[in-house]
Amino acid sequence: MREFDDLSHVVALLSWDQETNMPRTGAAARAAQLSTLNVLRHERLCDPRLGELLELGAEGEPSQEQAAMIRNLEHDRDRAVRLPVEFVRRMAAAESRGASIWREARAADDFGMYRPVLEEIVGYKREQAELIGYEGEPYDALLDAYEPGMTVARLEPLLASLRVELERILGAIRGRPAAPVAPFVSRTFEPAAQWELTLRILRDIGFDLGAGRQDISAHPFSTSISLQDVRLTTRLDESNPFDAIYSSIHEAGHGMYEQGFDPRFAGTPLAQAPSHGIHESQSRMWENWVGRSRPFIEHYTPIMREAFPDALADADAGQIYDEVTRVEPTLIRVESDEVTYNLHILIRFELELALLRGELEVAELPDAWNDTYERTLGIRPPSDALGVMQDIHWSHGSHGYFPSYTLGNLYAAVLWEALVRDLPDAEAGFAEGSFAPVLEWLREHVHRLGYLHSAEDTVRIASGGSGLEVGALVRYLDTKYETA
Amino acid sequence: MREFDDLSHVVALLSWDQETNMPRTGAAARAAQLSTLNVLRHERLCDPRLGELLELGAEGEPSQEQAAMIRNLEHDRDRAVRLPVEFVRRMAAAESRGASIWREARAADDFGMYRPVLEEIVGYKREQAELIGYEGEPYDALLDAYEPGMTVARLEPLLASLRVELERILGAIRGRPAAPVAPFVSRTFEPAAQWELTLRILRDIGFDLGAGRQDISAHPFSTSISLQDVRLTTRLDESNPFDAIYSSIHEAGHGMYEQGFDPRFAGTPLAQAPSHGIHESQSRMWENWVGRSRPFIEHYTPIMREAFPDALADADAGQIYDEVTRVEPTLIRVESDEVTYNLHILIRFELELALLRGELEVAELPDAWNDTYERTLGIRPPSDALGVMQDIHWSHGSHGYFPSYTLGNLYAAVLWEALVRDLPDAEAGFAEGSFAPVLEWLREHVHRLGYLHSAEDTVRIASGGSGLEVGALVRYLDTKYETA
Predict the structure, then answer these.
(1) Would the CB atoms of A23 and B227 count as touching at under 8 Å?
(2) Which residue ranges does chain B devote to CATH 1.10.1370.30?
(3) Which of B95, B120, B165, B251 is catalytic?
(4) Tell me, what's the pLDDT at B89?
(5) Please, what is the angle between helix B276-284 and helix B403-422, to 10°?
(6) Cβ–Cβ < 8 Å for A23, B213
(7) Which of these, A443, B258, B380, B454, is most buried using a 10 Å CB contact count?
(8) Cβ within 8 Å of residue B222, ≥6 positions away
(9) d(Cα B300, Cα B307) in Å, to the nearest integer?
(10) Is the dihedral of CA B56, B61, B66, B70 positive or negative?
(11) Which among A29, A174, A52 is positioned nearest to A483, based on CA atoms?
(12) Do B51 and B77 meet the contact criterion of CB atoms below 8 Å apart?
């Protein structure tokens, strides 16, 4: 168990280094190193001796924690043993190739260059689903890797009802005049000052920089090398400081979760989130519920003006709040606002579900993508680079991952309602820079539990009864954007 | 073979990250990760299937390259299979503990705190030598890890004759007036300017920063994550820019060697130096033969004056040359000059040999150390922190490593004589910033060969006949320091 955990963290370090420090010339050797480590992990997970030990453990009288460890490891092991090591190796090679071809193809805006490897990867995903098996339909087998136990049967109606609500909210917002664009949006924001500001915010909200660090990478991410070594990245865009600020807050949401697991769980399968959706609920909550709240902006407006004395000389909190909560259909998911974001996800879910059901082929994907964007958001991508090729996920075989983003928003909303019931003054406290009550509540009700319970049970226990539902998110958006 | 190579490079990355990026709180988990990886490497190396494959390979008709690969892997395997995995695990744990206790004990200047773990480690080293076996004496078994095939029988008389010559040279230098101390030695040198200067020198001498990088660490080192990803570190001391400059040049000597292996050897046991001494010959040659030459200093004096306009306003090349070639007995090996450096090594060799022979016990080490310093260099350490506890090596069980430093100087001298025979104008070219001829010569005669031949054969082929000898180093020092 601990050896498996060590190998997983070593893989995390190899990936972190690849995005932050590695010279580009090191890419081929790094791919080989990652492949070797992943094959070793797979072998250890499939080792018959581990199977025997897990059975023995389950037959003894395991404590609640031991039972959860066994259940978590068995879940991963059951999925792994169904995949022949040769299949894993071939699929991993295709996915590694896929990500690098995707980078080139996106830069060249050439879907034709990307198509063959994507077809290959979709082929592997269909095969993987069959090898792993499912009760409902093939997509379930992929979804289960990110959201254990989640099914299309559960997800599809839930997301369908969310879509109706989001379209209503978006319609209401678009039906009224937008806030005027503040003059600062076309100004320049010193990267060094952005960097210092993000570090200050990390410290303020409670990310422990003594047991972690922040670096720069092209695409922000967070990762744990151990519970005491949690790493975030951000990026600095001279023309938009909010990209760095909200990337840092988002990743710190992930990072504080990892820093908050019960230290007794270190090295065990309990020191992890129950699902990617739960992990995402923490990053989203800090980014949007906290970071895009009025009191947060009021608190940081003078601090931002000090950091960017030229660019923000004439800016007030109202203008900044309007900018960071502007709702507008756009082409790019990662730049979208908190209302349309989930519509971007629903588009991807719809398309990858169709791919897995065999109702859609890769060749038809660009047209299907553009049609769905036009139908859902009223805008048609002018190119595949700004359309179907914008995300890395499919290129490295993460089909089934996208729903976790929206599940994260749904869980965040449920948790937030519970938090506010317990701490009615929490949000007002942000205006004084007080974030500790929120972090402490999350530590106690979510973080420290790790993967002791399933995703939905974790939320149910924390919230005192509410599980996965659409209502809380809709109430949050209706209140914030005055669309009720 | 490639899997073993991948694991070795992953270990290198974990160690690099530990010294450059890891928050201190990550230390315990990192030790566990390194231990897991090292045990996996050991297991793979001892896998009976690898033994069978190596035998099959040797029985076929291997090419020269294949035969060298088999020989190199067999050498490591033969050493590994003699150590039970439980022994390896226990020894590795003691060594990991040793290094961390050493840090504390050195800071507290408390040998008593260090002594128990050092006794334990010396015990493991004696046991390790017996398990591995030897023809001559136990120390041979340890030496062979760093200098395959080298023995005390060969080394002891060689180093004894070197000692006589070094004492003669040191006596001659001390018998004449020292160069006056330049006023700049007590000034301040902007760290940012030091950093830029070291990067410039790296580029100038030929280290490929596009396929590598430089970072900061407490103790400079170099490591390869792959042939295309070679990493150096340096450190910035406000009061002494030469520490950074010569650390960077030294590590670049190692790094350019790694960058120069034949790319066809990537992932095989040929993509490495034949011994640590040969590796050290490259770092020493760039640091001392190149970096501490008059033409080098003449070339860089105006560049350094530009980098440090205040501190070096009144400095000329002569003064800088005098400072970087000042010979003076001091207590600390890593700060010593190129004449006394080898005497520091001879002291360590003498003491660790006595420890392995059982002629000396750890409890007696501080007194023995101080006596030997007084006898050899005429100065007695005022504390154990400045004496027996100054080096990390024994604390993590690298007994048998020290001779490689002096072997490196001996090999460097032999290679340099050969290089100058082929390129009589090489040194003069440094005055114009021309370093490419030296690098090209080393690439062709040393680097690209990797571990195709033994250490001494590599030097013999490169030099056209000269192997390991004391004469070349003595001639170099006699000429440079005018002591002939």
Answers:
(1) no
(2) 149-484
(3) B251
(4) 87
(5) 60
(6) yes
(7) B258
(8) B230, B231, B232, B233, B251, B252, B254, B255, B258, B283
(9) 10
(10) positive
(11) A174
(12) yes
A337/A288 Cα distance (integer angstroms): 9
Bridge partners of A224?
A230
Residues 6+ apart with CB under 8 A from B116: none
Q: Quickly count: other Cβ atoms within 10 Å of residue A238's Cβ.
A: 11
What tokens were used for A90? 């071939």
**Which pairing describes strands B212-216 and B229-234: parallel, antiparallel, or unpaired?**
parallel
Its ipTM equals 0.91
Nearest alpha-carbon partner for B41 in B91, B7, B78, B84:
B7
CB contact under 8 A, A228 and B21: no
**pTM beyond 0.90:** yes
Would the CB atoms of A228 and B36 count as touching at under 8 Å? no
Per-residue model confidence as pLDDT tens digits over B154-199? 999 999 999 999 999 999 999 999 999 999 999 999 999 999 999 9
3-state secondary structure at position A222: strand
The mean per-residue pLDDT over the stretch A35-56 comes to 93
pLDDT, tens digit, 9 for 90 and up, residues B30-48: 999 999 999 899 999 999 9
Determine the residue of chain B that is closest to A22 in CA distance: B229
Question: Per the CB < 8 Å rule, is A226 touching B36?
Answer: no
Q: How far, in Å, CA of B327 to CA of B325, rounded?
A: 6
Instruction: Provide the annotated active-site residues of A.
Output: 251
What is the nearest CA distance from A255 to chain B, expressed in angstroms?
14
- Burial of residue B22, with CB atoms counted within 10 A of its CB: 0-12 exposed, 13-18 middle, 19 or more buried: buried
Residue in A3, A37, A229 closest to B22 by CB: A229
CA distance B357 to chain A (A): 38
Candidates A2, A26, A225; nearest CB to B225: A26
**B227 contacts in A (CB within 8 Å)?**
29
The residue of chain B nearest to residue A12, with distances taken between CA atoms, is B14
Taking CB atoms and an 8 Å limit, are B213 and A21 in contact across chains? Answer: yes
CB pairs under 8 A between A and B: 109
Cβ–Cβ < 8 Å for A232, A419: no
Kindly list the strands in the beta sheet with B212-216, ordered across the sheet, starting from the edge strand earlier in the chain.
B212-216, B229-234, B222-226
Q: Which of A10, A23, A36 sits opposite B210 (nearest CB)?
A: A23
Tokens 């409902």, residue located: A136
- b/e string for A428-460 if b means 16 or more Cβ within 10 A? ebbbeeebeebbebbbebbbebbbbbbbbebbb
Q: What is the predicted pLDDT for the residue at A67?
A: 96
What's the CATH number of domain A147-484, 3.40.50.300, 2.60.40.10, 1.10.1370.30, 3.40.50.12280? 1.10.1370.30
CB contacts, 8 Å: B37 with chain A: 6, 10
Consecutive H or E run containing B448: none
Within chain A, all domains assigned CATH 1.10.1370.30 are found at 147-484
| Chain A residues with a Cβ under 8 Å from any Cβ in chain B | 2-3, 6-7, 9-10, 13-14, 17, 21-26, 28-30, 32-33, 36-37, 40, 209-213, 225-229, 266-267
A28, A37, A211 member nearest B25 (Cβ): A211
CATH number of B149-484: 1.10.1370.30
Exposed/middle/buried for residue A425 (C-beta within 10 Å: 0-12, 13-18, 19+):
exposed
Residues in chain A: 484
**pLDDT tens-digit map of A255-297:** 999 999 999 999 999 999 999 999 999 999 999 999 999 999 9
- 3-state SS of B343-406 is HHHHHHHHHHHHHHHCCCCHHHHHHHHHHHHHHHHCCCCCCCCCCCCCCCHHHHCCCCCCHHHH
Report d(CA A124, CA B12) in Å as an integer.
33
Listed as ranges, residues in chain B with pLDDT below 50 are: none
